[in-house]
Automatic annotation (TrEMBL):
<dbReference type="GO" id="GO:0005737">
    <property type="term" value="C:cytoplasm"/>
</dbReference>
<dbReference type="GO" id="GO:0003962">
    <property type="term" value="F:cystathionine gamma-synthase activity"/>
</dbReference>
<dbReference type="InterPro" id="IPR015424">
    <property type="entry name" value="PyrdxlP-dep_Trfase"/>
</dbReference>
<keyword id="KW-0663">Pyridoxal phosphate</keyword>
<comment type="similarity">
    <text>Belongs to the trans-sulfuration enzymes family.</text>
</comment>
<dbReference type="InterPro" id="IPR000277">
    <property type="entry name" value="Cys/Met-Metab_PyrdxlP-dep_enz"/>
</dbReference>
<feature type="modified residue" description="N6-(pyridoxal phosphate)lysine">
    <location>
        <position position="196"/>
    </location>
</feature>
<dbReference type="Pfam" id="PF01053">
    <property type="entry name" value="Cys_Met_Meta_PP"/>
</dbReference>
<dbReference type="InterPro" id="IPR054542">
    <property type="entry name" value="Cys_met_metab_PP"/>
</dbReference>
<protein>
    <submittedName>
        <fullName>Cystathionine gamma-synthase</fullName>
        <ecNumber>2.5.1.48</ecNumber>
        <ecNumber>4.4.1.1</ecNumber>
    </submittedName>
</protein>
<dbReference type="GO" id="GO:0030170">
    <property type="term" value="F:pyridoxal phosphate binding"/>
</dbReference>
<keyword id="KW-0456">Lyase</keyword>
<dbReference type="GO" id="GO:0004123">
    <property type="term" value="F:cystathionine gamma-lyase activity"/>
</dbReference>
<keyword id="KW-0808">Transferase</keyword>
<dbReference type="GO" id="GO:0019343">
    <property type="term" value="P:cysteine biosynthetic process via cystathionine"/>
</dbReference>
<dbReference type="InterPro" id="IPR015422">
    <property type="entry name" value="PyrdxlP-dep_Trfase_small"/>
</dbReference>
<dbReference type="GO" id="GO:0019346">
    <property type="term" value="P:transsulfuration"/>
</dbReference>
Length: 380
């Protein structure tokens, strides 16, 4: 089945009990038992399983080519569940410009439970190899990363990880299964902030985990049920609904991105444009091997943070907000917003300039977006 078809027909999203074409919102916490322990359809209590969530979990499992899928109340709850696979004293290697919330959870929460980590540049696989310690158990990577869109070779990392008996975890939020399937390249686990492209309408916060094998699936399922960070039935319904249009949304976003990158590349006020559409983007060839489309995120630099604020004040169609991946275009300044929790010194070393602007391109008309941004850039 091709991707656009799988988005509609993947998983079991027709209601198996009534035949309803869309799985209804099963707004229930518990289920009647015929005799003690005799469950009618396998459902006992909604932390453990709920049919609306099950429909979503079966869909994401198919979309990511995995064996088991789990839905959580946020991307961070999903990522936290994956980190909980580890024991005290275990060590994780993480890409250095990882999402700020992941950085915060590791450095402020999981560190108190004895989990150790190093943030490294993962674009060069030999650097990862040199950073592996006896305690290392997991490599956690976003590709492309946020906001620098750094590309890591998923196949090469997975091969290295297998040699050292490590788990490879890919945060696939940016590409989504429509454009990139990390499990096909040997990764063990995929995580998503489904709040972003999968949901796609800025109306639900959610996270997903998909595993490459049953054993890992059972372990994640056990953690999900034990620690309870599940997605509720209303949000599971909304997310399933959002996923159906993922393909056509991403096609329009890719169309818009091409013209916007071209504008930025040619505008005098722009110091630098960061996007894998550009020939000089590091590891561009690797991105094209492991993904079938481009990220909807574009980062670019203007001369300083004041100029960046000016641009934001003058755009009308790009809404000033955190988050990304929805139908409406968003604009933000990472150094002041999403990445403010990363110390300035580290931020600068990584290449997140104070005057950097991040766009999350939406599905509006291409010409309108280009004209709006061009107008704003002309004002500085
Ligand atoms: C937003 C985001 C997260 C966190 O997800 P929430 O749904 O906000 O908890 C994790 N990783 C990436 C790449 C993100 O963009």
């Amino acid at each position: 089945m091709n991707k656009k078809t799988l988005l509609i027909h993947g998983g079991k999203t027709t209601d198996e009990f009534t035949g309803a074409v869309t799985t209804p919102i099963y707004q229930t916490s518990t289920y009647e038992q015929d005799e003690i322990g005799e469950l009618r359809q396998g459902y006992e209590y909604s932390r453990t399983a709920n049919p609306t969530r099950t429909a979503l979990e079966s869909l994401i499992t198919d979309l990511e080519h995995g064996t088991s899928g789990y839905a959580f109340g946020s991307g961070m709850a999903a990522i936290s569940a994956v980190i909980m696979l580890l024991d005290k004293g275990d060590h994780i290697l993480v890409n250095s410009d990882v999402y700020g919330g992941t950085y915060r959870a590791l450095t402020k929460v999981f560190t108190r439970f004895g989990i150790e980590f190093d943030f490294i540049n993962t674009t060069d696989v030999s650097k990862i190899k040199d950073s592996i310690k006896p305690e290392t158990k997991m490599i956690f990577i976003e590709t492309p990363s946020n906001p620098l869109l750094q590309i890591t070779d998923i196949q090469a990392v997975s091969n290295l990880a297998k040699q050292h008996d490590l788990l490879t975890v890919i945060d696939n939020t940016f590409m989504t299964p429509y454009f990139q399937n990390p499990l096909d390249f040997g990764a063990d686990i995929v995580v998503h902030s489904a709040t972003k492209y999968l949901g796609g309408h800025s109306d639900v916060v959610s996270g997903l985990v998909v595993t490459a094998n049953e054993d890992l699936g059972e372990r994640i399922g056990f953690i999900q049920n034990s620690t309870g960070g599940i997605l509720g039935p209303q949000d599971s319904y909304l997310l399933t609904r959002g996923i159906k249009t993922l393909g056509i949304r991403l096609e329009q976003i890719n169309k818009n991105v091409k013209d916007i990158v071209q504008l930025l590349n040619n505008h005098d006020a722009v110091v630098k444009t960061i996007h894998p559409l550009n020939e000089d983007h590091v590891n561009r060839d690797i991105h094209l091997q492991q993904a079938s489309g481009y990220p909807g995120i574009i980062s670019f630099e203007v001369s300083d943070v004041e100029k960046a604020k000016e641009v934001i004040r003058h755009t009308k169609l790009f809404t000033l907000a955190e988050s990304l991946g929805a139908v409406e275009s968003l604009i933000s300044v990472p150094s002041l917003m999403t990445h403010a929790s990363i110390p300035a010194e580290i931020r600068h070393k990584e290449g997140i300039a104070d005057g950097m602007i991040r766009l999350s391109v939406g599905i509006e008309d291409t010409e309108d977006l280009v004209a709006d941004l061009e107008h704003a850039l002309n004002q500085i």
